[in-house]
Amino acid sequence: MSGRYLSLAEREEIALLLVQGHGVCEIARRLGRAPLTISGEIQRNAATLSGMPSRRRAVPRLPRSRPTTRYAAGPRTG
């Protein structure tokens, strides 16, 4: 087990445990990983784990709106 990256075996184990109905914290405890690592892996690989299209492809992102300037005509003087 690498300290930084999940191995293929760990990814497969996550998929199996999810199908069996185990929660993120239980999976993390069994693999000796942080729950955040497991939840991130589940979100990243949603397409491979559940057959659903990933959120990244399913919901297009809108561009960020630019903040309006505080003084559209310039600051007031006087």
From TrEMBL:
<protein>
    <submittedName>
        <fullName>Helix-turn-helix domain-containing protein</fullName>
    </submittedName>
</protein>
<feature type="region of interest" description="Disordered">
    <location>
        <begin position="47"/>
        <end position="78"/>
    </location>
</feature>
<dbReference type="Pfam" id="PF13936">
    <property type="entry name" value="HTH_38"/>
</dbReference>
<dbReference type="InterPro" id="IPR009057">
    <property type="entry name" value="Homeodomain-like_sf"/>
</dbReference>
<dbReference type="InterPro" id="IPR025246">
    <property type="entry name" value="IS30-like_HTH"/>
</dbReference>
<feature type="domain" description="Transposase IS30-like HTH">
    <location>
        <begin position="2"/>
        <end position="45"/>
    </location>
</feature>
